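Researcher: Following up on the earlier apo prediction. This time include the ligand. It's zinc ion, with the SMILES given after the sequence.
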Amino acid sequence: MSADPTGARDEGFDDFVDAVAAGEGYYLQCENGHGSVPPRQVCPDCGSSALSETPLPDAGELQTYTVTHVATPAFSEDTPYVTAIASFGPVRITGQLRDAEPEELERGMPVELTTAQSATTGRRLLAFDPR
Amino acid sequence: MTEVRVAGVGVTEFGTVPERTGRDLFGAASDEAFADADVSRSDVESLRYGNFMGELAERQGHQGPLMAEAAGVRAPATRYESACASSSAALRSAVRDIRNGEEDVVLVGGAERMTNLGTAGATEALAIAADELWEVRQGVTFPGAYALMAQAYFDEYGGDREDLAHVAVKNHDHAVGNELAHYQDPIDVEDVLEAPPVSEPLGLYDSCPISDGASALVLVSEDYAEANGVDAPVAITGSGQGGDDMALQDREYLARTPATDRAAEEAYDDAGITADDVDFVEVHDCFTIAEVLALESLGFYEVGEGIGAARRGETTADGDLPVNLSGGLKAKGHPVGATGTAQVAEITKLLRGDHVNSDAVAGGSVGLAHNAGGTVASCLVHVVEEVGA
Ligand SMILES: [Zn+2]
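Model: Understood. Below is the ligand-bound prediction.
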């Protein structure tokens, strides 16, 4: 199923999710060493347009998390679910943390970036597995 | 530079009225504002109107001219959208144009119809203030985004759910007797802690309600007020705006709101004051944690210290710095597009002495309004002062 309700791909973002699904996640690095996530024409920190795809570190670190009980209709059958933000080198990524009990969640916990599907819509999303 | 005066204010009762259209709500708020101002509608040179989710809630775009019609104003009209800070963005544009002499009489306000969408529908509509690709598609909701900030705050600086519960209890207490407030009943800490979780660590009573409502301000230049004998004892003396990255993941801090720091710094400079001069504040407490983050960024508390303010009684009506004497978004309600100008309306009444909580600010003359959009990717701060105090 397409990720976008209109059926269109989102260039940059969908390319990134494809790469994560293939185990080849990356971030964008500018000539001054700033990291960012696609799609970008310029580095949000310095405006440089010299951006190159750089492999994401395999291991990320959980920065914050929440267990959501009241969802939008697109995730109504997924509740309760965990969303989290994890850092991977110079960038952070937001995703759902699968296969972890809420009481195990802890800042600094090592995770891997992967993809998963919404139980409600089947749409794919970015996800983390405990490492 | 002429000073900007608040000649009149109007706010509908915030609450659950799913059958009332946006135009009905805004027409009522502006009618009240004109009656309060004693200014002729024919003198209005523009309408600046804030609204966030009109396309989703009412299938209605292009709301500027529609709302001018509803208000009985034959003047150019523009809608402003900055998520939950929409009407403050409208206000800032009016303040600047009155000051630079472009216009003398401006109708500013906002409205939001939300409850007709139901809880799930309103949750979906509110989520569009977040980054669709990097946040919403992963299941981040509006409460979920603030929950991520709350958890980050607890981990970084300490504090717990009970500290946040005191913010909710305080704001409900302040709304008692405010007939415009969505909730006018007091609650206690146990109520907050035992309420169903929405997005942990935030529960139902950490969250503002979904409300319908509208607010309007008639602003005039000091010159116009003097020439026409308009009684306008309150002035908007400072305006500031700050911005930040849209998605939480892209920001330097997960438990700080630098857009507020920037907006506050500009507004204080503009008004020629410092945080120490502020007597009371209306802050954007869409969730309890949001009040904590706002108080720190506005310069009232060091980073990591704001969490205990309500618990220590410093921000209650009888505290050193009363915060959200209206009840805040938490108890007064949060019809998104109406919120910013409703804050200024409440501050105006508090200063004029015709608010149920005016006694709490007796002797005070400087109020501050803090209105944020999304997870504070947008922020507007306005200083509101009693003239000649
Ligand atoms: Zn750069």
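Model: The first strand of chain A starts at residue 26 and ends at 30.
Researcher: Noted. I'll compare it with the apo version next.
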